Amino acid sequence: MGYESKFRVRSIAGILAVFVSISATAQVKDYRDIEYPQLPDFKIAKPEVYSLKNGITIFLLEDHELPLINVRAQIRSGSNLVPADRVGLGGVFSQVQREGGTASMTGDEIDDYLEARAASVETGMGGDMGTASMNCLTDDFDDVFAIFTDVLRHPAFSEDKIELARVQLNTGIARRNDDVSGIIGREFRRLIYGADSPLARLTEYATVANVTRDDLIAWHARYYTPRNITIGIVGDFDSKAMKQQIQSRLGDWPKGPRTEDPEVAYQPRIEPGVYFIEKADVTQANIRVGHLGILRKNPDFFAVAVMNEVLGGGFSGRLAKNVRSDKGLAYSVFGGVGSSFLRPGIFQAGLSTKSSTMAEAVDALKTEIFGIINDPPADGEMQQAKESILNSFVFNYTSRAQILARQMALAYYGMPKDYLQTYHANIEKVTASDVARVAKKYIHPDKMALLVVGNSEDFDRPVASFGEVTEIDISIPAPADSRPEVEKTAASVSAGALIFRRMAGALARDTTEPVQSVTSSSKMVINIGGQSMSMSQEVSFMLPDKFRQVMTTPMGEQVLVLNGGRGFTMAAGRNVPIPQERVQEGLQDLALELIVLASHAGNPELEAVAVGSDEMNGTTCELLSVSFRGAESRLCVDAEGKVLFQRYQGKHPFQGNPGIMEVRFSDYRVVSGRLVPHRREISFEGQQLVTETVESMEINTALNPALFELPDED
C-alpha cells in the first residue's frame, strides 16, 4: 500500500472513531455522566543502539509515516569548557562550523545546494554539548548526509565567516541591556552560580576579539572525535542499508584521544541578600528570588516536580491563583526548584509588576514561598498537579524524532535506561507528605537572594526595606582601542598645537567666527548585509545641544531630535524616547564635526596632541589626537591642512556594537568662508557602511527653535 493510500485509510479511521465517540455520548444529558475508557499504557518506541569500531554511538529509529529523514549529532563538548579569556568561542565555533563551509564546498555553496532541496544542515553549541543536525527528503538523503558528515569532520572555518560571527556577537553584547528580562535572567544566574563560573560568565568585546581561527581548529581537533560523538537517525529508511551508509561516511574516522576536562566550577552556596539594578527607562519592576536547586538524579526529583506544579504550575498553581488572579500583581508569575543534569539547577520565583507595586509583589512572592513550606497541598491540589504533569508529559513525545532526541539526551547525561518508562509511576506515587518534606528540605527563605530591576523612583517602598542593598553594575566594558596610544609630552603637545592651527586655518580660512548652527542636505548610499539602499537626509543643529535629522527612506520619513538631555525618534506616527545614554552619545558626536573643531582653535577645552603619521591614497599626513567636550578622535591632516580621515571610538549605526569608526573626507568646497568636505565615506571596523554627498549647506543662519521641540511621550 502506497503512502497516499495509507494516509487515506488512517484519515477514514480517525473520522469513524470520532463518529463512534459522538454517537456513544449523544444520549448523555449531563457531561458529568460521560464515561471515558481508560487510557492505554503509554509506550515509547525503542531505537536500535550500536557503536562503530571507532567509538561513534549510533541510535536508529525507523519511521515510515512520511518520506523524511532527520539526523542529530551530540558532541561531548560545550561552551562551559571555553577558557575565561575566550568566552564567545562556542558561539563563533557553532556558527562558523556550518557557515564557513568545508574543503570541498563554501558555506554559500552549501546554502544554495540545500535550499534547492528543501533540506537543512545546522550546527550549534550549548553549555554542555555541541550539536549538529540535518533534515531532508528520503530521496535526497545520500547527498545531504555527505554534506552533513563533511561539515562534522572537515569544517574550513573561513576567516570572513569568523569575522561575521564576531560582529554578530558584538551586536548582541551592545544590546544585552536593552531587554529587562534578559538583564534579570543573566544577573540572577551570576548571583547564584558566581560571576566567574563558566555557567554565568559574560561574553565581552575583549574575549570575542581573542578568538582566532587557530582556536576553532584546535577546539575541533580536541572535541570532535568519534569517542565524543553520538548520532541519532530517525525517519523513512531501511536500517540495514542505513548502517552501510553510516559505515561508508564515518567508519574511517580515526577515534582520536580521550578528552579529560575538569568539572565546571560554581559557587557551592550563594551570598544571600538584596540586590538592585537601576533601570530608569522602564515602567515595570522585574523581581527574582532564589538560591541553588537540585540535580536531576536526585531521588527526590519527582516529589520536587509535583511540589513545583503545586507552587507554580501554570494557571492552577498557587502563585498564579494568589499573586496573579487574586491580587492582580502580575500577568505572568512563576516559581519552582530547578534541576540540571550535571550540577544543581536554580530554585527561583519571579514576576514583572508595575513599578508602584514592586514591594507588594515581593511580599506576595515570599508569602507563597513560605506557604509551600508551611501549608502542605490538599488532596485536590495533589490530584491537579499530578494530572497536569502526566497529561503534558505525552506531548513531549508526539513524534519519533522527539522520542529519539529525548532518549539520546538521557543517555548523554547518564540517566537510567528505564527513566522514561518509570516516569509515570514515579509521579503517581508522590504523596502530600513527600511534597511537604521536599519543600522544607530544598527551599530556604533565609538563604535566598532577592534581585530587583527597575526605576527606584516609582517603587511603593524602597528596595532597602528588604535589607541592605548591593547595587549591581551592568555597564558594558568598551572594546580595546586599536589606535596608537597618545603619548603626551611637551614636544607632542607643542607639535599638535601647530598641526591643529594649520588645520583650523585651512577649514576656517576666511572667518574667525565660531560655528553656532549648521543646516545641510545630502544624498546617502547605505550598505547593509551586502545590499545598497539610497536615501536623503536633512540635518540642522545649534550648538551645544540641539540637533535634528530628517531621513527620507524607502520605508518613509524618520525624524530624530535631540534637545538638551532628551531625545526622540519619530516615524509612522509614533514618538519613541531615546535613552539618555544615547542622547549624550549623539551630542558628543556634534563635538567631532570638523567645522566645529576648527572654529574652536585656542579654546582651552580643546586639546591637540601629535601622535605620528599615516597616509591615505599615497598622501602622507600627520596624525593628531583631538579631545573636545568629552569627545576624542584622531585626525589625519595633510600638508595643506585638509583632514583626510578621522577615526574615533563609536558605535555601529545599525547594530549598536562599539568599535572604530573611520570617516574619509574629500571634495572640499568653500561655504561661508570655511573649507568644508562635501563627500564622506564612513566605515566601521574596516567595513564601509555609508557614502554621503552633501548637496547644500548653510552655516550660522538663524534657525527656528520650533525645529527642536520635543513631542510628548506616547
Q: What's the helix and strand layout?
A:
Blueprint: H1 3-25, E1 48-51, E2 57-62, E3 68-75, H2 89-99, H3 107-115, E4 120-125, E5 130-137, H4 141-153, H5 159-174, H6 180-193, H7 205-210, H8 213-223, E6 229-235, H9 239-250, E7 273-278, E8 284-292, E9 294-295, H10 301-312, H11 318-326, E10 333-337, E11 339-340, E12 346-354, H12 358-374, H13 379-393, H14 400-412, H15 419-428, H16 432-442, E13 449-454, E14 469-471, H17 490-507, E15 517-528, E16 531-542, E17 546-553, E18 556-563, E19 566-571, E20 574-577, H18 580-590, H19 594-598, E21 607-616, E22 619-628, E23 631-637, E24 643-651, E25 658-671, E26 674-684, E27 687-699
Parallel strand pairs: 2-6, 7-13, 7-14, 9-11
Antiparallel strand pairs: 1-2, 3-5, 3-6, 4-5, 8-12, 8-13, 10-12, 15-16, 15-27, 16-17, 17-18, 18-19, 19-20, 21-22, 22-23, 23-24, 24-25, 25-26, 26-27
Helix pairs in contact: 2-5, 10-13, 10-16, 11-12
Protein traits:
Cytochrome Bc1 Complex, Chain A, domain 1; 33% helix; 6-stranded mixed beta sheet; globular; 714 residues; 27 strands; 13-stranded antiparallel beta sheet; alpha+beta; disordered N terminus
Give a brief outline of the structure.
The strands form 4 sheets. Strands 20-19-18-17-16-15-27-26-25-24-23-22-21 form a 13-stranded antiparallel sheet. 33% of the residues lie in helices and 29% in strands.
